[in-house]
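F.,

This is the one I mentioned.
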Protein backbone atom coordinates (compact mmCIF):
# COMPACT_ATOMS: atom_id res chain seq x y z
CA UNK A 1 0.00 0.00 0.00
CA UNK A 2 1.39 3.38 -1.01
CA UNK A 3 2.15 5.67 1.91
CA UNK A 4 0.13 8.88 2.03
CA UNK A 5 0.59 12.07 3.96
CA UNK A 6 -1.82 12.50 6.89
CA UNK A 7 -4.60 15.10 6.77
CA UNK A 8 -4.88 17.33 9.86
CA UNK A 9 -7.88 19.55 10.58
CA UNK A 10 -6.47 22.54 12.44
CA UNK A 11 -9.92 24.06 13.05
CA UNK A 12 -9.95 23.42 16.83
CA UNK A 13 -6.77 25.48 17.23
CA UNK A 14 -8.82 28.62 16.55
CA UNK A 15 -10.91 27.99 19.67
CA UNK A 16 -8.78 28.52 22.78
CA UNK A 17 -11.65 27.27 24.95
CA UNK A 18 -11.53 23.85 23.25
CA UNK A 19 -8.67 22.34 25.22
CA UNK A 20 -9.50 18.78 24.19
CA UNK A 21 -9.72 19.67 20.51
CA UNK A 22 -6.47 21.60 20.62
CA UNK A 23 -4.74 18.70 22.36
CA UNK A 24 -6.03 16.31 19.70
CA UNK A 25 -4.66 18.49 16.90
CA UNK A 26 -1.34 18.87 18.75
CA UNK A 27 -1.04 15.10 18.96
CA UNK A 28 -1.64 14.75 15.23
CA UNK A 29 0.98 17.43 14.51
CA UNK A 30 3.49 15.67 16.75
CA UNK A 31 2.93 12.31 15.04
CA UNK A 32 3.27 13.82 11.55
CA UNK A 33 6.39 15.83 12.39
CA UNK A 34 8.09 12.88 14.01
CA UNK A 35 7.20 10.61 11.09
CA UNK A 36 8.25 12.70 8.10
CA UNK A 37 7.56 16.39 8.71
CA UNK A 38 4.82 16.72 6.04
CA UNK A 39 1.04 16.73 6.25
CA UNK A 40 -2.04 18.12 4.57
CA UNK A 41 -3.81 20.93 6.40
CA UNK A 42 -7.54 21.66 6.35
CA UNK A 43 -9.59 23.94 8.57
CA UNK A 44 -7.10 26.74 7.89
CA UNK A 45 -9.79 29.37 7.18
CA UNK A 46 -8.23 30.67 3.96
CA UNK A 47 -11.22 31.29 1.69
CA UNK A 48 -11.34 29.18 -1.47
CA UNK A 49 -12.38 32.22 -3.49
CA UNK A 50 -9.21 34.03 -2.38
CA UNK A 51 -7.05 31.21 -3.70
CA UNK A 52 -9.05 31.24 -6.94
CA UNK A 53 -8.36 34.95 -7.39
CA UNK A 54 -4.68 34.45 -6.54
CA UNK A 55 -4.31 31.69 -9.12
CA UNK A 56 -6.07 33.73 -11.82
CA UNK A 57 -3.94 36.83 -11.23
CA UNK A 58 -0.77 34.76 -11.07
CA UNK A 59 -1.50 33.19 -14.46
CA UNK A 60 -2.06 36.69 -15.83
CA UNK A 61 1.29 37.79 -14.43
CA UNK A 62 3.27 34.99 -16.07
CA UNK A 63 1.46 35.71 -19.35
CA UNK A 64 2.67 39.32 -19.33
CA UNK A 65 5.18 40.27 -22.04
CA UNK A 66 8.76 39.60 -21.02
CA UNK A 67 9.68 43.31 -20.69
CA UNK A 68 6.89 43.78 -18.13
CA UNK A 69 8.27 40.97 -15.98
CA UNK A 70 11.86 42.13 -16.46
CA UNK A 71 10.87 45.58 -15.19
CA UNK A 72 10.43 44.06 -11.72
CA UNK A 73 13.35 41.62 -11.85
CA UNK A 74 15.08 40.77 -8.59
CA UNK A 75 18.07 42.82 -9.67
CA UNK A 76 15.84 45.86 -8.98
CA UNK A 77 14.80 44.62 -5.54
CA UNK A 78 18.05 45.45 -3.79
CA UNK A 79 18.48 44.31 -0.19
CA UNK A 80 14.80 43.38 0.08
CA UNK A 81 15.49 40.44 -2.27
CA UNK A 82 12.11 40.77 -3.99
CA UNK A 83 10.95 40.54 -7.59
CA UNK A 84 10.77 38.25 -10.61
CA UNK A 85 13.36 35.73 -11.74
CA UNK A 86 13.40 33.95 -15.11
CA UNK A 87 13.30 30.28 -15.98
CA UNK A 88 16.51 28.73 -14.70
CA UNK A 89 17.33 31.81 -12.61
CA UNK A 90 17.15 29.99 -9.27
CA UNK A 91 19.57 27.23 -8.26
CA UNK A 92 18.95 24.17 -6.09
CA UNK A 93 22.14 22.37 -5.09
CA UNK A 94 23.94 24.32 -7.80
CA UNK A 95 21.60 23.26 -10.63
CA UNK A 96 19.09 25.58 -12.34
CA UNK A 97 15.44 24.90 -11.56
CA UNK A 98 12.93 24.60 -14.39
CA UNK A 99 10.69 27.33 -13.06
CA UNK A 100 10.29 31.08 -12.98
CA UNK A 101 8.90 32.95 -10.04
CA UNK A 102 8.00 36.05 -8.11
CA UNK A 103 9.61 36.66 -4.71
CA UNK A 104 7.53 38.56 -2.19
CA UNK A 105 7.48 39.20 1.53
CA UNK A 106 6.05 41.36 4.29
CA UNK A 107 5.41 44.80 2.77
CA UNK A 108 7.58 47.31 4.65
CA UNK A 109 7.86 51.01 3.90
CA UNK A 110 11.05 53.10 3.91
CA UNK A 111 10.40 54.35 7.45
CA UNK A 112 10.32 50.89 9.02
CA UNK A 113 13.28 50.59 11.44
CA UNK A 114 14.64 47.47 9.76
CA UNK A 115 14.49 49.10 6.34
CA UNK A 116 16.21 52.22 7.66
CA UNK A 117 18.90 49.95 9.12
CA UNK A 118 19.29 48.29 5.70
CA UNK A 119 18.58 44.85 7.12
CA UNK A 120 18.70 42.30 4.28
CA UNK A 121 15.43 40.74 3.08
CA UNK A 122 13.29 43.54 4.55
CA UNK A 123 11.56 46.15 2.40
CA UNK A 124 8.98 46.70 -0.29
CA UNK A 125 7.70 44.27 -2.90
CA UNK A 126 7.93 44.97 -6.62
CA UNK A 127 4.63 45.00 -8.52
CA UNK A 128 3.95 45.04 -12.29
CA UNK A 129 2.57 48.38 -13.44
CA UNK A 130 0.52 46.58 -16.12
CA UNK A 131 -1.39 44.49 -13.56
CA UNK A 132 -2.68 46.57 -10.63
CA UNK A 133 -5.02 43.78 -9.48
CA UNK A 134 -2.11 41.52 -8.49
CA UNK A 135 -1.01 43.45 -5.40
CA UNK A 136 -4.26 43.45 -3.39
CA UNK A 137 -4.97 39.76 -3.93
CA UNK A 138 -1.41 38.73 -3.04
CA UNK A 139 -1.42 40.82 0.13
CA UNK A 140 -4.84 39.48 1.12
CA UNK A 141 -3.70 35.88 0.62
CA UNK A 142 -0.46 36.48 2.52
CA UNK A 143 -2.40 37.96 5.45
CA UNK A 144 -4.76 34.97 5.58
CA UNK A 145 -1.99 32.39 5.26
CA UNK A 146 0.17 34.17 7.84
CA UNK A 147 -2.72 34.11 10.29
CA UNK A 148 -3.17 30.38 9.71
CA UNK A 149 0.56 29.76 10.19
CA UNK A 150 0.61 31.71 13.47
CA UNK A 151 -2.31 29.65 14.80
CA UNK A 152 -0.67 26.44 13.58
CA UNK A 153 2.48 27.35 15.52
CA UNK A 154 0.34 27.29 18.66
CA UNK A 155 -0.40 23.67 17.83
CA UNK A 156 3.32 23.03 17.30
CA UNK A 157 4.05 24.57 20.71
CA UNK A 158 1.42 22.35 22.34
CA UNK A 159 2.76 19.30 20.50
CA UNK A 160 6.10 19.83 22.25
CA UNK A 161 4.55 20.23 25.69
CA UNK A 162 5.00 24.01 25.70
CA UNK A 163 2.58 26.84 26.33
CA UNK A 164 0.60 27.68 23.20
CA UNK A 165 2.31 31.06 22.80
CA UNK A 166 5.84 29.83 23.52
CA UNK A 167 7.15 30.17 19.95
CA UNK A 168 5.35 33.48 19.51
CA UNK A 169 7.07 34.88 22.62
CA UNK A 170 10.49 33.37 21.97
CA UNK A 171 11.19 33.32 18.24
CA UNK A 172 8.43 35.24 16.47
CA UNK A 173 8.57 38.85 17.67
CA UNK A 174 8.69 39.85 13.98
CA UNK A 175 8.29 36.65 11.96
CA UNK A 176 10.17 36.38 8.70
CA UNK A 177 7.28 35.89 6.28
CA UNK A 178 8.27 35.21 2.69
CA UNK A 179 5.92 34.28 -0.14
CA UNK A 180 6.67 32.84 -3.55
CA UNK A 181 4.62 32.37 -6.71
CA UNK A 182 6.25 29.72 -8.87
CA UNK A 183 5.46 28.88 -12.49
CA UNK A 184 6.60 25.54 -13.87
CA UNK A 185 6.23 25.37 -17.66
CA UNK A 186 4.78 22.23 -19.21
CA UNK A 187 7.44 19.63 -19.92
CA UNK A 188 10.08 18.49 -17.50
CA UNK A 189 10.46 14.93 -18.75
CA UNK A 190 13.57 12.81 -18.26
CA UNK A 191 16.10 14.12 -15.76
CA UNK A 192 14.61 17.62 -15.68
CA UNK A 193 13.47 18.87 -12.28
CA UNK A 194 11.20 21.80 -11.58
CA UNK A 195 12.97 21.93 -8.21
CA UNK A 196 15.65 19.49 -7.16
CA UNK A 197 15.87 17.78 -3.79
CA UNK A 198 16.01 20.29 -0.94
CA UNK A 199 14.69 21.19 2.49
CA UNK A 200 13.11 24.46 3.59
CA UNK A 201 15.01 26.74 5.92
CA UNK A 202 12.81 27.97 8.75
CA UNK A 203 9.84 26.81 10.84
CA UNK A 204 6.80 26.12 8.66
CA UNK A 205 5.87 26.19 5.00
CA UNK A 206 2.23 26.40 3.92
CA UNK A 207 1.95 25.38 0.28
CA UNK A 208 -1.04 25.91 -1.97
CA UNK A 209 -0.92 23.97 -5.24
CA UNK A 210 -2.96 24.23 -8.39
CA UNK A 211 -4.70 21.09 -9.62
CA UNK A 212 -1.74 19.63 -11.56
CA UNK A 213 0.57 18.49 -8.78
CA UNK A 214 4.18 17.37 -9.05
CA UNK A 215 5.40 17.57 -5.44
CA UNK A 216 7.29 14.54 -4.11
CA UNK A 217 8.33 13.91 -0.49
CA UNK A 218 11.18 11.71 0.74
CA UNK A 219 10.00 9.28 3.42
CA UNK A 220 11.80 6.38 5.12
CA UNK A 221 10.13 4.10 2.58
CA UNK A 222 11.17 6.17 -0.43
CA UNK A 223 9.77 9.03 -2.48
CA UNK A 224 5.98 9.49 -2.44
CA UNK A 225 3.67 11.83 -4.32
CA UNK A 226 1.89 14.68 -2.53
CA UNK A 227 -0.90 15.43 -5.01
CA UNK A 228 -3.21 18.41 -4.54
CA UNK A 229 -6.32 17.91 -2.44
CA UNK A 230 -9.06 20.46 -3.01
CA UNK A 231 -9.26 22.92 -0.13
CA UNK A 232 -6.12 21.60 1.57
CA UNK A 233 -2.66 23.07 1.97
CA UNK A 234 0.51 21.02 2.25
CA UNK A 235 2.48 21.87 5.39
CA UNK A 236 6.06 20.94 6.07
CA UNK A 237 8.60 21.92 8.69
CA UNK A 238 11.96 23.49 8.00
CA UNK A 239 15.56 23.19 9.10
CA UNK A 240 15.27 25.51 12.09
CA UNK A 241 12.37 23.61 13.63
CA UNK A 242 14.48 20.47 13.34
CA UNK A 243 17.34 22.30 15.03
CA UNK A 244 15.17 23.77 17.77
CA UNK A 245 13.66 20.36 18.60
CA UNK A 246 17.05 18.65 18.66
CA UNK A 247 16.11 16.45 15.72
CA UNK A 248 12.82 15.24 17.18
CA UNK A 249 10.97 16.89 14.29
CA UNK A 250 12.65 16.40 10.91
CA UNK A 251 13.02 18.80 8.02
CA UNK A 252 12.24 16.47 5.15
CA UNK A 253 13.72 16.64 1.64
CA UNK A 254 11.26 17.20 -1.18
CA UNK A 255 11.34 17.99 -4.90
CA UNK A 256 9.09 18.89 -7.83
CA UNK A 257 8.78 17.39 -11.30
CA UNK A 258 6.09 18.78 -13.58
CA UNK A 259 5.07 15.94 -15.87
CA UNK A 260 1.39 16.82 -16.08
CA UNK A 261 1.61 18.31 -19.56
CA UNK A 262 0.26 21.59 -18.17
CA UNK A 263 1.82 24.75 -16.82
CA UNK A 264 1.86 24.39 -13.03
CA UNK A 265 1.62 27.05 -10.32
CA UNK A 266 2.53 26.72 -6.65
CA UNK A 267 2.29 29.19 -3.78
CA UNK A 268 4.56 28.52 -0.78
CA UNK A 269 4.38 30.83 2.22
CA UNK A 270 7.31 30.52 4.61
CA UNK A 271 6.53 31.40 8.23
CA UNK A 272 9.91 31.58 9.87
CA UNK A 273 11.72 32.94 12.93
CA UNK A 274 12.48 36.57 13.51
CA UNK A 275 15.52 37.49 11.43
CA UNK A 276 17.39 38.48 14.62
CA UNK A 277 16.39 35.49 16.81
CA UNK A 278 19.19 33.20 17.94
CA UNK A 279 18.56 29.57 17.05
CA UNK A 280 19.17 27.75 20.33
CA UNK A 281 17.56 24.31 20.83
CA UNK A 282 14.55 24.15 23.13
CA UNK A 283 15.45 23.57 26.79
CA UNK A 284 13.76 20.17 26.90
CA UNK A 285 15.01 19.04 23.49
CA UNK A 286 17.03 15.87 23.52
CA UNK A 287 20.64 16.36 22.54
CA UNK A 288 20.75 15.69 18.83
CA UNK A 289 23.19 13.36 17.23
CA UNK A 290 25.03 16.08 15.35
CA UNK A 291 25.84 13.74 12.48
CA UNK A 292 22.72 11.56 12.26
CA UNK A 293 21.09 13.67 9.56
CA UNK A 294 24.18 13.94 7.35
CA UNK A 295 23.70 10.54 5.73
CA UNK A 296 20.03 11.28 5.04
CA UNK A 297 20.49 14.70 3.43
CA UNK A 298 21.54 15.19 -0.17
CA UNK A 299 24.01 17.93 0.87
CA UNK A 300 25.60 15.85 3.69
CA UNK A 301 25.21 18.87 6.01
CA UNK A 302 23.76 18.96 9.51
CA UNK A 303 21.45 21.70 10.74
CA UNK A 304 22.69 20.91 14.24
CA UNK A 305 26.12 22.29 13.41
CA UNK A 306 24.69 25.78 12.91
CA UNK A 307 24.85 28.51 15.52
CA UNK A 308 23.75 32.11 15.15
CA UNK A 309 20.61 34.01 14.22
CA UNK A 310 17.98 32.90 11.76
CA UNK A 311 19.11 35.75 9.52
CA UNK A 312 22.61 34.27 9.45
CA UNK A 313 21.24 30.91 8.36
CA UNK A 314 18.86 32.34 5.79
CA UNK A 315 21.45 34.59 4.13
CA UNK A 316 23.90 31.72 3.89
CA UNK A 317 21.27 29.69 2.05
CA UNK A 318 19.87 32.31 -0.34
CA UNK A 319 23.38 33.35 -1.37
CA UNK A 320 23.69 29.89 -2.94
CA UNK A 321 20.28 30.12 -4.60
CA UNK A 322 20.93 33.45 -6.33
CA UNK A 323 24.73 33.89 -6.37
CA UNK A 324 24.47 36.49 -9.12
CA UNK A 325 22.54 38.82 -6.81
CA UNK A 326 24.70 38.58 -3.70
CA UNK A 327 26.81 41.68 -4.32
CA UNK A 328 23.78 43.81 -5.25
CA UNK A 329 21.57 42.65 -2.37
CA UNK A 330 24.07 42.26 0.42
CA UNK A 331 26.90 44.62 -0.50
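My design for it:
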Amino acid sequence: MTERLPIIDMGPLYDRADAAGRARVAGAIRAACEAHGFFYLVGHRIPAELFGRLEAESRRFFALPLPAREAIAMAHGGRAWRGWFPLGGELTSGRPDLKEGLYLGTELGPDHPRVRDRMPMHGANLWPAEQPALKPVVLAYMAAATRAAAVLMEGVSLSLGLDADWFARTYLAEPTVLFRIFHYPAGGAGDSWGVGEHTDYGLLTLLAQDRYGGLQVKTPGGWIEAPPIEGALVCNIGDMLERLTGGRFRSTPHRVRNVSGHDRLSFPLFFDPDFTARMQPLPQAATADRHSDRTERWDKASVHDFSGTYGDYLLGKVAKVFPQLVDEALG
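The mean pLDDT is 90.

Talk soon.
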